[in-house]
Amino acid sequence: MRHIATALAMAFAAPAMAQTVTSPAIDALNSPVRSEADKAKDAVRKPGELLVFAGVDLGDKVADFIMGGGYFTRILTGWVGPKGRVYAYQPAEFISYRAAYATEQDAAVKGLANVTPLRSSLGAISFPEPLDAIITVQTYHDLHLSFAPKGFADLVNKRLFDALKPGGVLLVVDHVANADPEFKAPDTLHRIDPAAARAEIERAGFRYEGELPILRNPADPGTASVFDPSIRGRTDQFVYRFRKPR
Description:
The structure is a single chain. By secondary structure, the protein is of the alpha/beta class. It has helices at 2-12, 15-18, 24-29, 36-40, 42-45, 47-54, 71-79, 92-97, 100-109, 152-163, 185-189, 194-203; strands at 61-65, 85-89, 115-118, 131-137, 164-175, 207-211, 237-243. It has a single domain (34-243), classed as Vaccinia Virus protein VP39 (Rossmann fold), CATH 3.40.50.150. α7 links the parallel β1 and β2 (85-89).
C-alpha cells in the first residue's frame, strides 16, 4: 500500500512538493539505472500511475511481458524493491527476427540484482514462481502478428493466467484500433481493437476490473500505423486491468 500513497502525492501535490516526496516509488522513477531519455518519456507514458493502477507494490513478483527495450523493467526493479523479483521476458520469436532484442535485453537487466531475464518461446512461456502481476505495455497486439497461428493468443493468455497467483493482476496497455474483431489491424497498424482484446483475455478466465483513461487521445483517428510520424508518441491507448479470480 505504500505506493498507493505515493500515487496520491504524485497526482495531487504541486510540482515543487511532488519533488520532495520520498518513497520507493518516486525513487524507482528517479533511479540512476534509468536513462535520461527514458525519464523524459514519463510525462507522456505515465508509468507511475499505471503501476499503481495495477497494484504493484514492494516485494511483489512481477513479469514485464514482451519487455522491448526495458523501459518498464528499469522502473520495476526499484518499484518492487530488493525483496521483490522482476522477470524481464523477451520472446525467442522476436530475438530470431531481430537479434538486437537480445542485446537490448542484456543491457536492460545488467547489474539489476532482482531482475531475471527470460527468453523462451511465447507458446512455452512460464515463470519460476507464481506472480503477483504481469504487465504488457504496447505489445499485446504482437500476439496477433502474421507469425501467430489461429488461437495463438488464447494459448498465451492461458499461460499468463496460470502464471499468476490467485488474485493476481494482468495489466494490458495498447494502441487502440477501430472495430476489428478479426484482428487485422495488429499486423498492419500495430494496434488492436480494445473490445476484441478484452473478450479474448476474459476467455482465458480473467475477470475484467476496469479501465484507466489517462492515455486516451480522441484526436487519434486510429487509422495510421503507430510508427507514422503524424501520430507516433500520441496514439490513443487503452489501459485495462484484469484479475485472476481467487
